[in-house]
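QA checklist item 7 of 12: single-chain prediction sanity check.
[x] sequence parsed
[x] length recorded as 299
[x] structure emitted
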Amino acid sequence: MTLDLTPAETPVPAAAGTPGRPVLRALLRDRRALFSGLVLVATIVVAAVSPLLHAAATAVAPDRRLRGPGADHLLGTDELGRDVLARMVQGAWVTVQTAAVAVGLALVIGTLIGLLAGYAGGWADSLLMRVIDGLLAFPLLVLALAVVAALGPGLRNALIAIAVIVTPRIARVVRGEVLSLRTREWVAAARIVGVPRRTILLRHLLPHLAGSLLVFTALQASTAIMAEAALSFLGLGVQPPQPSWGAMVSAGTEHLDTTWALSVFPGLAILLVIVAFNLLADALRDALDAHRPQLRATA
């Protein structure tokens, strides 16, 4: 039996790793995916219009401080008389930045580290994984606090800290997948015909990781949002007067006996977005698992 290594067949493994239309149709029929998609799209839209409410979110009015929900202020006012709803809309921009910038940065760096460590093996794998294991040994929030303490409080440094805690988790998952895939026949065939290592990593291995990365990234987005809220709650994330849902919850805990809305509504917003990302991850996992035999049949 001979092995046909024609150039037209070498891209097949990359195409096989792409979920395609069956997965998309499965997601459109999944109520979890529809609910999470609605919540996340609404959050992005709200964040996009947040500049329009900047004046209302920063306008101080001592004569209307700590008012409950009403016709004039749908979600009430805070300790300085600022509109809670307007400040929550402003805080949505911080949440979107956390999910996009921090997790996106961690995804790029973690995927690169995992690909290199899993494919190269040897001393490079050992060195990179020891560093990753060292970072994973710290509790998530403790590591984030250490990074922010070293860099200083602020949104930018909080995003860097969140990227630092998410990167090793993504790198570990990617490395495990690559260790399994690098022994496949089509990878060996690509080496035999002289395909460059970079091409093997980016065009053959990386597409096969897309499904796992989508699911895990959705999970890590919820972790990142929770970490940002915790840092802002402790005063190490977003700094006043810029609003953040975590900081609003923290400020509201001092006035629970006066108005409950100041903490409850931002807390519910955090919970809703975190639940949406987790439901999206579950829906993606089920949709990809249902079509995995079909997708890998040609690999």
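[x] summary fact logged: Residues 84-120 form the longest helix (37 residues).
[ ] second reviewer sign-off
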